[in-house]
């Protein structure tokens, strides 16, 4: 009977345009992120710029044409620099003491010209004091300091950010989406009185289990398609080395999503049983949604400091770990025992949530008319059929 109910959910939701659209967007979207990452990370060529010189600025020509890793400058002497600037022949006009731009200054080019001017002025002052260029070079020679990191020397921070971002967002969106499908399905059956027909043939626990199985299979299929896209995306990024922690986060992402879906979908089903109208769903689901939103917000604001206490603690709290555990796995080299502990806590919490939310579901399912409050549902959950 459970499989019959699950099959009904599979057929109803699996053929919908919404399911097919979201699945396609997830797959294409994650690959698009990788292509963008490849473009941003693989462009190592210096940008070509043209600097117009006039007046005292002409003396800086040789120094300005040296360039650096970011800029490949060319200098030209202009009789009418402002006209050349307006016509787009040059990027900036330098007179030795003044920088003239057509519009907003280019911060990279602005800083480069100022640094070069400072170096030339410093050399002239040193010569006036009788200090040779060799002495100046020796005085300001860069100290060679080796950098060693305990996480294996991984410097591909952009890859970690991209992987953590898409993993956290996908988990958040899919749990929210399929949790809402679960809730709306219960509300629709309850408001149309279909639930009364169903309960005349099956027990409430069987109905809930069938719904969880059917929607869970669809959600899992969607997550697998997303993970396939993520693997393809990581594989096509040839310009950078993929950190081991990012690859390790992929299987953890799948396991975390399965457990997170079971945890939250049951709670959403309980919310759906508490209301009889679609209009009441949004306010009723707020207590369930807030922890999930909080987890996503913590991850989204912690890219510059992934080891902050909120992320660490949140990766063990079952209400936020479905989002924060994949994020933390991608951003840091999380110890294996901590991953196992987080998953174990989430698994045990599912048992508690199923019993609690299942009792509310059974108590509220045939209650129509006024909305069942959270206080009433918790107080009377022991009256539900066990």
Brief rundown of the structure:
With about 375 residues, the chain is mainly α.
Q: Can you characterise this structure?
A:
- By secondary structure, the chain is mainly α.
- The protein folds into 2 domains: 270 residues, no CATH class; 93 residues, 3-Layer(aba) Sandwich (D-Maltodextrin-Binding Protein, domain 2), CATH 3.40.190.
- Helix content is 66%, strand content 5%.
- The chain contains 15 helices and 4 strands.
- It has a 4-stranded mixed sheet with strand order 2-1-3-4.
- Helix 7 packs antiparallel against helix 11 and helix 10 runs antiparallel to helix 13.
- The radius of gyration is 30 Å and the shape is elongated.
- The chain starts with a helix and ends in a 6-residue tail after the last helix.
- About 2% of the residues have low confidence.
């Amino acid at each position: 009977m459970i499989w019959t109910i699950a099959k009904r959910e599979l057929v109803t939701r699996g053929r919908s345009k919404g399911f097919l659209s979201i699945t396609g967007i997830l797959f294409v979207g994650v690959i698009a992120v990788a292509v963008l990452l490849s473009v941003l990370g693989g462009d190592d060529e210096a940008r070509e710029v043209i600097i117009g010189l006039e007046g005292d600025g002409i003396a800086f020509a040789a120094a300005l044409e040296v360039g650096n890793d970011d800029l490949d400058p060319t200098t030209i002497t202009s009789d009418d620099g402002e006209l050349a600037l307006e016509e787009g022949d040059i990027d900036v006009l330098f007179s030795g003491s003044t920088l003239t731009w057509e519009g907003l200054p280019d911060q990279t080019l602005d800083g480069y010209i100022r640094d070069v001017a400072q170096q030339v002025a410093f050399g002239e002052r040193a010569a006036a004091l009788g200090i040779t260029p060799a002495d100046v070079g020796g005085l300001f020679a860069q100290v060679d300091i080796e950098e060693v990191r305990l996480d294996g020397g991984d410097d591909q921070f952009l890859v970690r950010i991209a992987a953590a971002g898409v993993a956290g967002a996908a988990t958040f969106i899919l749990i929210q989406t399929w949790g809402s499908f679960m809730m709306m399905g219960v509300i629709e059956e309850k408001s149309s009185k279909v639930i009364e027909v169903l309960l005349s043939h099956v027990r409430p626990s069987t109905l809930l289990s069938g719904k969880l199985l059917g929607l869970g299979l669809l959600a899992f299929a969607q997550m697998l398609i997303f993970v396939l896209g993520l693997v393809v995306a990581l594989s096509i990024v040839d310009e950078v080395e993929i950190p081991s922690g990012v690859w390790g986060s992929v299987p953890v992402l799948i396991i975390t999503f399965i457990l997170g879906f079971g945890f939250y979908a049951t709670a959403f089903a309980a919310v759906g049983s508490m209301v009889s109208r679609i209009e009441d769903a949004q306010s009723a689901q707020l207590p369930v949604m807030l922890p999930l939103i909080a987890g996503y917000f913590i991850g989204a604001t912690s890219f510059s400091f992934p080891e902050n206490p909120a992320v660490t603690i949140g990766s063990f709290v079952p209400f936020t770990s479905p989002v924060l555990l994949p994020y933390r796995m991608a951003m840091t080299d999380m110890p294996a025992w901590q991953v196992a502990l987080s998953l174990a806590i989430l698994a045990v919490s599912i048992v508690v949530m199923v019993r609690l939310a299942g009792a509310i579901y059974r108590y509220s399912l045939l209650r129509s008319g006024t909305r069942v409050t959270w206080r009433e549902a918790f107080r009377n959950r022991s009256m539900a059929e066990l």
